[in-house]
Design brief:
By secondary structure, the protein is mainly alpha-helical. It is built from three helices and two strands; from the N terminus they run αβαβα. The chain has a two-stranded parallel ribbon with strand order 1-2. The longest helix has 18 residues.
Length: 79
């Protein structure tokens, strides 16, 4: 599965995900796809890292691999 934040409204100021986006991601992760690819072109590294860290919990809980597209540094920092 590949993330696509363009399909959802922008998150509120200071938030990492819009509520509808987060709900869709959690539901998709619960369905246990083989992997979730965090593909957030155009985001700065800090926000991408926060998004990766937040997704890591549900991914680990359901045995889903989290792939961070294009940013090895973010993937390593996220854990």
């Amino acid at each position: 599965m590949v993330t696509d934040r363009g399909r959802f409204p922008a998150p509120a100021a200071g938030e990492d995900f819009a509520p509808a986006e987060w709900a869709a991601l959690v539901a998709a992760i619960a369905a246990r796809p083989g992997a979730l690819q965090l593909r957030d072109k155009g985001l700065d590294g800090a926000l991408r890292l926060r998004r990766a860290r937040r997704l890591l919990g549900p991914c680990r809980e359901h045995g889903v691999k989290l792939l961070v597209n294009g940013r090895v540094d973010v993937a390593l920092a996220a854990g």
